[in-house]
Amino acid sequence: MFFRRIFLKARDTIVSYLFILPAFVLVVVLLVLPMLQNVYYSFFQWDGISPAIFNGLKNYLAMFTDRVIAGSMLNTVIWVAFTLVFPALGGLIVAVFVTGLRGENFFKSIFFIPLTISFVATGIIWTYMLGRELGVLNGVLALFHIPLKPSYLTSVPLNTFSMIFAWTWQQLGTNMVMFLMGLVTIPRDPIEACIIDGANKWQTFVHVKFPMLAPITTVVITMAMVNSFKVFDIIYVMTRGGPYSSSETLAISMFRETFTLFHMGYGAAISVVLSVIVIVISAAYIRRMTKRDMLYY
Amino acid sequence: MRKLKGLTLCVLAVALLVTGVGIAAAAPNLVLMHDKGGNPNYVPFFEDLGKQAQAAIGVGFTQSPYPTTDVFQAAVRAALPTSKAPDLFTWWSTYRMKDLIDNGLVADLTDLWDKHKAEYPQGLRNAFTFNGKVYGMADVVEYWGVWYNKDVFAKYNLKVPTTWAEFTKVCDTLKKNNVTPMLESVQQRWPTFILFEEMVARQDPQLYDDLCAGKVKYSDPRVKKAFSVWADMIAKGYFTDPSTDLFADGPRLFNAGQVAMIPCGSWYLSVLTGGGVSIDKADIFVMPPVNASAGKVVIMEASPIVISAKAPNLASAKKVVDWWMGPVGNAAFAKMLNQYPANAKSDSSFLPASKVNFAKTINSGYRVLNRYWEATPTAICEKAVDKFAEFILKPSSVDTVLADLDKIADDYWANAKK
Prior knowledge:
The complex is a heterodimer.
Chain A: H1 2-41, E1 44-45, E2 53-54, H2 58-65, H3 67-98, H4 104-112, H5 119-129, H6 136-143, H7 158-184, H8 188-196, H9 201-212, H10 214-229, H11 233-238, H12 250-260, H13 264-290, H14 293-296
Antiparallel strand pairs in A: 1-2
Chain B: H1 2-26, E1 31-34, H2 43-57, E2 62-65, H3 69-79, E3 88-90, H4 95-102, H5 110-115, H6 122-126, E4 129-130, E5 133-134, E6 137-149, H7 150-155, H8 164-176, E7 180-182, H9 192-201, H10 205-212, H11 221-235, H12 250-255, E8 259-265, H13 268-274, E9 282-285, E10 297-307, H14 314-325, H15 327-337, E11 340-341, H16 353-362, E12 367-370, H17 372-375, H18 378-393, H19 398-415
Parallel strand pairs in B: 1-2, 1-3, 7-8, 10-12
Antiparallel strand pairs in B: 3-10, 4-5, 6-8, 6-9, 6-10, 6-11
């Protein structure tokens, strides 16, 4: 009897491992091994075809003296800061104002539709919208006889902010949905108690609703930060990081060094730095997500 | 009965095996890797050419298309040192293929170039030559000039300029009539070298060659003079805003008569017509020399087909390239693309009148220079295009730009394999 129980337990354990084996193998082969290989090559000077030459920490140290990387880092920080302000805060504002409004579903759909478009398509659409000569935005300015004709994608730093605007247009819907989910799960009791105590709408939002949205806010902010650290496709489509690298972020610099200049080792070092930043933020996010108080506020 | 069945099956199996081996020996499965599987899409053209080669010489090829250049380059570079190297692959000439040659990854085709010596101009051969050996073959070539709107020129009684004074006069007249003379773009990064190479080559073609080869510094006074002419043109308003896109905006502005001239490769005709411009509306001329002593100069762009040094079917691949380099094979592919055959003896009567006339002009004693994109090392070019963009947007930054270009070039040449 005893041995049978041990046998059954062992069998269950083996079966459980067999179930996770395919996913485990995929993650190891397609993610863990390439990541380790990437870290390995970050210590080498390599063009992808010649023998790799070990150069220690030179690739990492070179990043500190590289003006393009300094600019990319600054742009990445700008992206992170402004994607917290616009898509995240904007999502909250839209969610709050749309809730209970007449035609609520219509407005929700309007803000949600851009989310169904890919980043590449978003980039192409906004490249046309922001064209200086034939763009829609400058066309509207001309219609109202406003004597302005900005070059949205080639003036520095306007180009970075123009792309953040396009990104916001696409991302606002995601954050709105997240905050809407948070708002509907807030219990009615504290809100009603607050109203009975004489609080107005603003006070109710600031002192009751917003604090109770904290878990969702954490998720939105963390996701926004992670996404903006690794932003690539929309920039690649709209400016390719140009002109003169002025709108490059770390992800674009990494791509350019690796696949355009074939500085594989240097590109690997940039990607390691970028990955470390994203992993640290993601780890904080996952820890926050797995806390039990998420479920009960 | 059972024995008879077994015997029959054995005989059939052996027959199939023998036939199969026979087929495999007669027609190896040659593979052409290329990056023209997206936009432009050359898949049907390569398929057709593979069949034509099969019919003509008994050896054809299949293809392995990639939709984007970045992924294609990474895939080819990864495959070349291995036994999975493609037999044939598309690439870019001169310095774009140098690191592959330095690493012994590309087959030497000097014998084929010698065989077809009388059919190819020396300038084209030079673009494929390293240390006396010739690598890759040219499938098509294109030349760089200035596309102009014939209707706009007719409206303002303008003639194709042959001197720099005439050229600036054309620009002034257009400007006076609220037509932007030329398109200039920093979008997509690479188009910034178009005006750079025109300005330097039209000051002194030898200076251009020496600059590309690292024999002259970017801060050389003659280069600085070329930049000052360019800056003067920007200041006079000869160009569109640099945010204008060569592909998205160019054809529409050209068609509407808002921009009269677009400096670009002769292949740009298909971009114009694809963007709605009537083929009769566009014609092309070579930009006149800024410095008259520069003489007749035209910039060339050659597209190579390369054989891997480790090609699984090297002999058959060379047989295909031999046919493709010849007048018939070369014309067949060029006709599909509506581009100039690289082989001077190939039929090119299929080309539109503007391109036929342009070729006649070039054949009247023009010195052919290699395009900057290929003529200078990739590591310099990829960074230089950003510096040219900086200059276009801030012409006053010329000294900083030239100093930065010197540093980029010096860093490369200091470590370059000679």
